[in-house]
Amino acid sequence: MKKLGLFLCSAMLFGVVSGCSTTPQIFDDKDVHFKLLNQQSMNGAETYTIQIMSTSPMELTHLSLYLDYPIKLQNGHESNPFQIKGRTNQSIVTLDKGQSTQFTFYAPIKQVFGDSTLLDFNHPDIELDGFSKEGSKEIPFEIAGDLSVFLSQHK
């Protein structure tokens, strides 16, 4: 009888231990959705309002969104190190699942670049930087590329 009791206790303990194990969550960039809310051209300047929405089960924190105009090359484009940082009404941008925020950009193209043909003003690139958070662990991430690609992927 003692052996049966020991076996049952061992089986229950194994079930409790294995039932409590959790699989760590992994950040997936497909859980971040971009939407262009507004774009205006006025007096040689461009303004953009871009919404970011999270469907990630993880908290996303310390988010920053940047915009730049790629440098034209004979065989394509290269990234531009000069970026415009998006403004938002939050000092630290944090999103939980289902939440969104907006970033606004002002790009004084004519004033800064004149009539430059070296930059692709029709296809701006964006870069979203931040941390995915699970418990107290924060893991940095970056999503970058052509704005139009992100908009078409997340309609």
Helices and strands, with pairings:
Layout: H1 2-20, E1 32-42, E2 45-54, E3 59-68, E4 71-73, E5 76-78, E6 84-85, E7 100-107, H2 109-113, E8 125-134, E9 137-146, H3 147-153
Antiparallel strand pairs: 1-2, 2-7, 3-6, 3-8, 4-5, 8-9
Question: What is shown here, in short?
Answer:
The chain has helices spanning 2-20, 109-113, 147-153, and strands at residues 32-42, 45-54, 59-68, 71-73, 76-78, 84-85, 100-107, 125-134, 137-146.
Taken from the alpha-carbon principal axes, the silhouette is elongated
- Radius of gyration in whole Å, from Cα? 23 Å
List the total number of helices. Answer: 3
Q: Based on helices, strands and strand pairing, what is the structural class?
A: alpha+beta
Strand content: 35-45%
Low-confidence region ranges:
3-11, 13-19
Average pLDDT metric:
84
Helix content, binned percent: 10-25%
Order of helical and strand elements = HEEEEEEEHEEH
Largest sheet: 4 strands, antiparallel
By DSSP, the count of extended strands is: 9
Strand order of the largest sheet: 6-3-8-9
Q: For the terminal residues, how far apart are their CA atoms?
A: 64 Å
